[in-house]
Amino acid sequence: GGSSDRSRALGRSRGGAKSQRQAGSEERQAARQKPTMLHLRVACALAVALAALAAVSPCVAHDGDCQQLLETFPDFAEGRLAPRPGEQNEGARVEPDFYFFLHIPRSAGRTLNFCLMKAVFHPKDRCFSSYGEGSQHDDEEGGPGVVDPATRTVEIDRGPLDALGHPCRFAGTHDDLSVLQSVRKAPGRSNSNMAVFTQLRDPVDRALSAYEFTVRTASRYFHRPPDQNSRKNPNKTATNDVWPWIDLIPIVQEDMRRRHAERKAREREGIPDADAWVRHFDAMDSSRVTYYNRAANATEEVPPSVAKVLPDLDPYDNEVVMPLSEFVRLPEVRQVIHNNQAYQVLGATNISGEHALSRRLRSCAGGEAFDLAVVERAKGVLDRLWHVSVFEDLEGSISSLMRASGWDLGQRGYRNGEKIVRDLGLKVKALEERARDKVAELDLELDVNKRDLIEQHKLVSLYEYDPDRQAELKDAKAAIGRLEARALAIEGKRVKAAALEPEQEWVQDDFGMPEDRPSVREVFDQCVDRAREKKDVRQKTRFMRELRDSWGRQINFCPMARKKISVSTIEEIKRMNRIDLALYEHAKLLAATC
After folding, report:
1. Which class for 350: exposed (0-12), middle (13-18), buried (19 or more C-beta within 10 A)?
2. Is 162 exposed, middle or buried (0-12, 13-18, 19+ CB in 10 A)?
3. Which of the residues in the chain have pLDDT under 50?
4. How high is the pLDDT of residue 143?
5. Do the Cβ atoms of 314 and 561 come closer than 8 Å?
6. Sign of the torsion angle spanned by Cα atoms 29, 32, 37, 43
7. How far apart are the C-alpha atoms of 300 and 44, rounded to whole Å?
8. Would you state the pLDDT for residue 391?
9. What pLDDT sits at residue 230?
10. Cis peptide before 244 (omega within 30 of 0)
11. Cα–Cα distance measured from residue 398 to residue 86, given in angstroms and rounded to the nearest whole number
12. I need a surface site. Which of 176, 333, 378, 555 has the fewest CB within 10 A?
């Protein structure tokens, strides 16, 4: 954009220096070209409109080019996956070297990743949390939703005991499958025997959930200045830095600010029916209803008999937040939500390690033949993954994953918080710092010893041929022997100090187990209960308190409200997700056979 503006400016400056005759000639030529330019504008507008209906970029290549691009697009699963459990010979089971959870956003992946898998894996085997997929976000290079994979510094295969020769064995992120390219070989871990598992969700429900999550998260800080840091804990990754929310939250948040300002301006002119009452729902129990009057700031169990009670606010279409119908048509939502279950499985999202190819591939979407080919390609990847499950059968998904992996819900579980892994990493850092200090201290001793050796060798050279200094020569040679022996001793200490060894307790089986030694099932249930309580009590209560319309009506996302979403909006979501819809049906078949 910038370069083309500069070119146009340069062209105008040059045009000012042309002769009148040349200018007249150019005007006549432009006049002859007007019909052609008009036709081009009409054609371009039609192309953009068709692309919008197809939910793709207007820069769509020819079908043949698209098919060839898909055929040559890298297969990130090839040569990297462990054999599926059902394909291994009985009695010859091969344990995968590395487990990776391909976390598709809004598919209960957090429940599987944080509550289940981290109860299964020993803290030393867990990789550090790496949900910073968007931390190197770059809007300049390729439009909305671009993360430069070349500058990403978050490694998915880095664990707390890596420096001690114990590489981590489990990671889960929002990355797409292309991230498997970055998994490094390590002692006891290859990059060709990885168990990759994922969970898909009905694309319509997932799009609705993405809208609800974006609105709720954007509402937390919409009243703050846009440039104000919202992080409470700098050691934790903020949701705003996590893909795909890094692309969506700022847009919805800015829209909230605009609507809030407009609403406040209207309220200064007066609110019609200001004495009306509205229904308020309890965040924990939506069946519990009270009545609220903003003018009197009063809450009653039952409204006055003559009171006017306004209809409830439609959570998906109101003046407070961006309507669902507008949200699902955003270019950024098309970029990171629609059909992105398939793109994550293929490694073709906008955070792919093959960014340029992925962008071209996604721009081809919309043609029936191409979309079908993408579905078949993604099916082929799903068929090779370690385990595939679906959101709608979470309990069945958990049981089949545990069974397929040779784990048991009754086995002892580990603490599933991030803190224990982070603290273990800090202990290793402290160990490394002590080792560096000790090595530096020994290096100083070696330097002093080396200088003393040099002095003694000088004395040997000086006394060797002097018959009157043979006693001193003997002492110098003896000193050299002692200094050389001391140098070897210091070198031994240095090697030992540099060879870090973990504390014995860090690698013991019971490290990280709660004192009451609960089962994986018990740890999982406790984690889910805590997560639900945290989400419902703290976040939902604040959301319903702070985000209201002029009369105090709440935005209450609930199953009943979803049923009232217009058929046209639901059909629009289906049209935009036809690749994911087909892939989801295949995932259900795979889940049923696991």
Report:
1. buried
2. buried
3. 1-60, 134-152, 229
4. 41
5. yes
6. negative
7. 58
8. 95
9. 53
10. yes
11. 17
12. 555
How far apart CA 306 and CA 309 sit, in angstroms, is 9
Residue 586 tokens, joined:
């295949």
d(CA 60, CA 52): 12
* Strands laid side by side in the 277-281 sheet: 277-281, 289-293, 298-300
Q: Which pair of structure tokens corresponds to residue 63? A: 């079908």
Helices (H), 16-54: 20-53
End-to-end CA distance of the chain: 50
Rounded distance between C-alpha atoms, residue 59 and residue 52, angstroms: 11
Return the pLDDT at 238.
77
- 136-155 CB burial, b ≥16 within 10 A, e <16: bbeeeeeebbbbebeebebb
Which amino acid would we find at residue 353? G
Write b or e for each residue in 169-184: b if 16 or more Cβ atoms lie within 10 A of its Cβ, otherwise e: bbbbbbbbbbbbeebe
Residue 366 is encoded by which pair of tokens? Answer: 């919309």
Q: What is the DSSP letter of 121?
A: S
245: its two tokens: 């929310």
Tokens of 465: 């041929």
| Helix or strand run (H / E) with residue 521 | helix 520-533
Tally of helices (H runs) and strands (E runs) in the chain: 21, 7
Predicted local distance difference test score (pLDDT) of residue 47: 44
DSSP 342-381: HHHHHT-STT-SSHHHHHHHHHTTT-HHHHHHHHHHHHHH
Neighbours of 394 (CB within 10 A): 17
Tokens 């240095």 belong to residue: 494
User: Residues in the chain, how many?
Assistant: 594
* Token pair recorded at residue 54: 């197809």
Within 10 angstroms of residue 385's Cβ, the number of other Cβ atoms is 22
